[in-house]
Structures
1.
Amino acid sequence: MTHVGKSEKRVDALGKVTGETQFPGDINMPNQAYMKILFAGRPHASIRRLDSSAAEAMSGVLAVFTAKDVPVNEYGLIMPDQPVLCGPGSAKQYADRVRFIGDQVAVVVAESEAIAAQALERIEVEFEDLPVAQDALESMAEGAVLLHPDRGSNIFCQYRIRKGDVEEAFAQADVMVESEYRTPPQEHAYLQPEAGLGYIDDEGRVTVNVAGQWTHEDQEQIAHALGLPVEQVRVVYSAIGGAFGGREDMSVQIVLALAAWRLHQRGIDRPVKVIWSREESILGHHKRHRYVIRSKWGATKEGKVVAAECEVIQDGGAYAYTSTKVLGNSTLMCTGPYEIPNVKVDAYSVYTNHIPGGAFRGFGGPQGAFAAEGQMNKLAEKLGMDAVEIRLKNVLTEGALLSVGTPLPEGVSIGKVVEECAVRSGWKRSGRGWKKPARKRLGSPEEDHLRRGIGIACAFKNVGFSFGAPEQNTAIIELHGKERIEEAVLRHAAAEVGQGAHTVLAQMAAEALDLPITKIRLVVSDTAVTHDSGSSSASRMTFMAGNAIRGAAESAMEKWHAEERPAVGIYQYRPPPTTPLDPKTGKSEPNFSYGYVAETVSVEVDTETGHVRLLDVICADDVGRAVNPQLVQGQIEGAVVQAAGYALMEDFQEQGGEVRTVRLSTYLIPTVRDIPERVESVILEYPDPIGPWGARGMGEMPYLPLTPAVAAAVRDAVGIWFDTFPLTPERVLNALKESETP
Amino acid sequence: MKSVRPGLPEFDYIRAETIEQVSELLKNGKPSRLLMGGTDVFVQMRDGAFSPAILVDVKHLPGMQSIQKTGNKGLRIGAAVDLNTLAGHPEVVKSFPLLAEAAQSVASYQLRSRATMGGNLCNASPAADTAPAALVLEAILVAQGSNGERRIPAHDFFTGPGQNALQDGEILTSIEIPPPPKGPVGRYLKLGRNAEGDLAIVGVAVLGYADKTSESGFRFRMALSSVAPTPIRVPTAEDILESRTIGDETISAAAQAARKTAKPIDDVRASAGYRSAMVEVHARRALHAVWTALGREA
């Protein structure tokens, strides 16, 4: 192979490095007007009265739009439970309520941003505050105040798994571990805050140029809210400054389209531009879900896990977003990549007045992994068994049944991945099994108050949409030329969120067509000229697009040989079907592909200040086939750093529905001086039988094991299990003090 | 929710060439604000904390950006000297490494290219990193106003959170660091939530030197940031270190005295309790570091 497996230069490198690339906030159109959004600013209230007349009367204000102006005032990726604009006057029941601080109430379009901002202050809103639900456990109890009274309950999704008989198995277990894990929210903190332009294009389409993750889904949601046929809406992603799941749901898309469309109806054809500040971005888009996971696991003295019982409670925040899908992943992953004969899981998504929970790298996997790996490490300790040894006794193998009663797809490598990671990290195997590296291998700290430790964790993560969600990816390839192919145009919707998708698409197209990469021209991320690719999420784009590109290339080449000019191949790839969880037993075929990963982390804990410093992270990740090894390494290192922030530092403070950390000066993410001293990426290539050139997805996997591995390393260092994080210095120091007082 | 402003409110920018011009502008009645590096002023203007009609840039007044030796090994630092320049200046590094260390700890390299020592002090944040250094070096803050020059000792300068001793129409033009005592050793230890960029949860500056006239044979000066309404000196700790034989026990006692002097609050960065505990830990660490270095030199 000449292109796949090679670290080709990124196709977008030059533009981004020189600053030539235009992100949505950089684009200006002639005669554009400016939009500002009025946010609720309070966590739970009904709007008694809304009067925008003073704002509308201001000089320089073109229009103010409120709920009454939204044709179909609802949206939502999974279920349409969110008003586009909250307030009286729309047909949507209970749309007069605001349910989190970042709910959108009105939009002002004006000649300048400053005028729009002033006009916001002239909009009179009379709120009647409602009780604030800020705890999922309380919110799911009988008699709790309902966020969505029409739904009758704050529990908006529920899954259960029943496999075998956990009670009977617990009775026979030699050791038991019971814990309650609590995981925190996390902000995506992408470089580029939300921004975009709404306008009517040359063909009369309501067009939005924004940064998102799935052009065609944005298009559908806009069309639904505006009551327009899908073809009359166009979505373009010019460039995207990071996403991590944070752009899966709507932020500015619908209101931009609404403003452009309503202005057009009034005879005003002017592009409308909006740029969110960092504060607006942090308040306005969803966060990683908080979870409470109660786990009770039992094992035999030989180290075989015989039963796992888990209660999984997800704080969904004010609206569903992708919560139900995230919950599905947690339901599967809370028992880890292990074959456990008896499993009982009850999982719930619950509304609260928090900023909604939604997609974020790992998508329910990190929370599940934190609980599963915590349980595994504690069982190992209780049994006096090595953490690698116990994993290898329990990991899923080819044909072994998941908790949901079906086997993993062919190509199960988790055992090999754990072994490779362990060996690279100094574990030794002897006749008596695996043994972790001696303490002296970790090096000696400089001071007495510093303690070092090492920990391991592993994980599996699905590639692609799960549990019966429709899944497809379509590629178009046009071959131009006469005798020889002069140029191959690849039309594809894939969102390049910074991960390198477009580079990888070009590499795979070159490989499939056996052409130099310079002959591939990409036409991307525009609903007007590409077909639906699904989202850049779920570690799926390389896998899905690769298969679609192969199909399109084959079809185009056939037509080329049949003398068609240009030769156009269109191919829709559909992976093997998945099925939803059975409501009673959870039986399902959850996914068609997985990636497998294991990580070791060594830490140094300052017992006087509580600071945890990451020394070495070794990540072994089975990517099936590294299409572009340098990009793979970038994804591993990026995931490790982002997870390090989640584990140690990122402390999103939301109290009574108010956010104390609305800036990057109060919400800290790791700086270059906070990241692990060394991250070793061990790229393993055990091919996925149905992956393109064997590739699996890999963008999320390295994120999953880091936090539980850190927790294990801290336990090794100072003897305390942390079931809650982030491990801020204060939390660590408090626990150290508590452990000193008998 | 207060609407977040899209940008800065409109203002006139005037680059002042003379002190007299500044005094005139400040007196002419229009709301005005002095501009140094702008790293605090612009952020607060964007937040709508104030909207001056005029920003008077005083960076280019004579002497504002220079560092000069004064007689007997002291230094005169122009108020508008940026923190990267300050941290890297050979005279500062040689004679007052504590000040270089403090300057270096502020925010990030990019911000330090703009931020000035004068601005850091005038902003009078309890968390100002150069303030504890100014306190233990017993700097004199030189202000110019229509009534001429006024010399304000650092320990009189900070009057409350965000408040300083400058009078209307006065501007800080330089910071004079008096000649150091013989054989001084200084350290500034800063604890933030991250390793680079965060405001201090606790900052501790310590300056120590041998002095045969004290009972312990040494004198120490200690100052703290971020744990009281203003940056503060810790005389109780200094007394302990002058009156008792220096060793682990005395250092611990002094660190505890620092903890007692501190009056921290809860905020988004840390609780009062954690800050309080960290004052003791960092005071002890800073004292140990200084003591060890003094021992090496003795």
2.
Amino acid sequence: MNNFSYTRASDVASAVREVSSGDAAVFIAGGTNLIDLMKENVTQPSRVVDITRLPLARIEELPDGGLRLGALVTNADTAYNPQVERRYPLLSRAILSGASAQLRNMATNGGNPMQRTRCYYFYDTSTPCNKRDPGTGCSAIDGFNRIHAILGASEHCIAVHPSDMCVALTALEAVVRATGTQGERTIAFADFHRLPGDTPQHDTNLRSDEIVTAIDLPARGFADHYAYLKVRDRTSYAFALVSVAVALEMDGDRITEARLALGGVAHKPWRNTDAEAMLNGLNATKDHFEAVAFAILREAKGFVHNTFKIALAQRAIVRALQHAAGMGRKG
Amino acid sequence: MSTTPGTGTPAVRAPTALPPTSPITLHLNGAPVKLDVAPWTTLLDALREYLHLTGTKKGCDHGQCGACTVLVDGKRIVSCLTLAIMRDGATVTTIEGLSTGDALHPVQQAFIDQDAFQCGYCTPGQICSAVGMLAEGRARTADEIRELMSGNICRCGAYVNIVAAIQQAMQGSGGSVKP
């Protein structure tokens, strides 16, 4: 870890001022990813701004019936919050399928979307990586790319975003609240992360002078018909090879609205609203689900070691949809 | 060691500036302690190297193994991925702070009763993690214990007895346990 200076921000405005003052400054909250990246010398900040004492650690009901998740509420306290458990079980389930209990006690709602990819080459400073050192090349494209992207990748980067929480937030159409030197703004969750294109060094559309202050959940939580299915190399404490978040509105056996987001397959949580719309008005059947799964993966492109993810994702989508629709539960 | 050619004596290096340190206070195992830390000193290194509490183990130092698990303000965290300076004023409980005099904590006693370790390196982290998990009150079944203890790796593979030890401690504290 490189040497750095440390300041503790007392309010959001001073935090923004501290981080926008020019040199390589970063915010720290949970620290579970940042400190690891600093130990690996992937990130070498000259200044670390501690935001853990900011007043952003509350979960509050919103006038429109939604729920505001403060940026500094831990992932564990969010997943176990009675309102989240009851009204947004998809989010609770997704959070609890990620990391370990210790890490969930540290990691925050603002930090989870800001975590970096776990691409081995991004972490290995002896190898080229366009995300870590723009212009040096992508080691994963012709390397060991078993965990890498099958959708939305570019010739410059095939990394995936590692979060489970963000997959659920995408399906729930959450909204990120951010404050910067130019004031406060909201960012739809689907627009928060970005595809790599030719600038994979940028994971998100958050500006460098901005801080995430909260994540707002809309009133509708899809608590009656949801599923979060995570497929990984061991049954706990591993990143997703493929994960699927499903949220359905149903009228009897008929689907009136379908939301579907994939994790572990792209540089951002992957959503295909055209494919989802295919389910509107249809009965919940395996055939219909297979058609949607095929449509979502039609444009998928495998590399040498991750081609298996295409069939895996299709099957995971079908199973998650069946689970959300309550199929196979009645014996 | 590099030497100045022809002399056999150590080369003279430019002096390295000592890192700036800041005073912090931890409420550690029931008593306040003051120490000076550099910004980049992790809580784990502060405990082991500055406060000489070597019960907390450095395994992977990357948050993947759980050997450095301690309780901060009552919650289990990995001490390798937090900076000591960020925890100024916090209440920290390590494996050294669980017993009361010679009376072991029920989870410590259960690990002995159930033979829940071989080499013992992961054990302080396992025990602190289990104490944190019992306080959370989310584990009832053996499967739930396994899931909520998955952040603690045991390379000896003592998992079967670790789960048994935690079940013993849960029964002792009145918690219901299902197989």
